[in-house]
Design brief:
globular, 5 strands, 3-stranded antiparallel β-sheet, alpha+beta, hpI Integrase, Chain A, two-stranded antiparallel sheet
């Protein structure tokens, strides 16, 4: 379900991993992106690795703090997940709205670096083409662009400061889109040539219509 959420929101992997129930606003049909769960490497004074710590951290940029609308499908999926988790609460245990939405088998949040294995299994299971964990974000941006989403809206959804970043790094032109654009341009060109031909034909008709009365007069004089 984490992969489905990334695909339908365009969130960065670390943003999806850090999603908490308090940030899922079902009544307002939106998700608030406000933290990132990361694997932080620890070093000693001589820059030797001493360990790792998994914790919430700041987002990449100021623009990364944003609201993302929930699709009806995603809302239903998350509601079902919440009901399932609430039904599994132990006797006397209260619901914690500060809990992470997506937990692994040992009850801790996923980290992007460890999702590589999961996505490999996912690809094999559903017989998909090779992709990385960031592929869901790329697919979201491309789909939104193909559907005609306003570029400023898409920029905000992606959490970018400039649309050029979204356009250059995330939007990919599909074969179907190239085909449709090619057909559109050729159709417009054909229409333009047709209108030009019709215009020339109309001008020619007007010219000959003007000439015809003169020929009739000449013929009458000869007769």
């Amino acid at each position: 379900m984490l992969f489905a959420t990334l695909l339908q929101t365009g969130m960065r992997p670390e943003e999806g991993c850090s999603l908490k129930w308090k940030s899922v606003h079902f009544n307002q049909n939106k998700i608030r992106v406000e933290n990132a769960y990361k694997d932080i490497t620890l070093y000693d004074d001589e820059m030797n690795i001493t360990g790792h710590i998994m914790t919430d951290g700041d987002l990449k940029t100021t623009e990364s703090y944003r609201n993302i609308p929930m699709t009806p499908r995603l809302k239903e999926m998350l509601l079902n997940l919440k009901r399932e988790k609430m039904n599994n609460l132990q006797y006397g245990q209260e619901w914690n709205n500060n809990q992470y939405v997506f937990l692994n088998t040992i009850g801790t949040p996923y980290v992007p670096e460890r999702l590589t294995k999961k996505i490999t299994e996912f690809i094999k299971k559903y017989k998909l083409e090779h992709m990385t964990i960031y592929g869901f974000r790329h697919s979201f941006a491309t789909l939104m662009s193909e559907k005609g989403r306003d570029k400023e809206v898409l920029r905000e959804l992606m959490g970018h400061a400039e649309f050029e970043t979204t356009d250059f790094y995330y939007i990919h032109v599909s074969e179907e889109r190239k085909k449709k654009e090619f057909e559109r341009v050729n159709f417009e060109e054909f229409q333009g040539k047709t209108k030009s031909a019709e215009s020339k034909s109309t001008q020619a008709k007007r010219y000959f219509l003007k000439k015809k009365p003169q020929k009739r007069k000449e013929f009458s004089r000869l007769s």
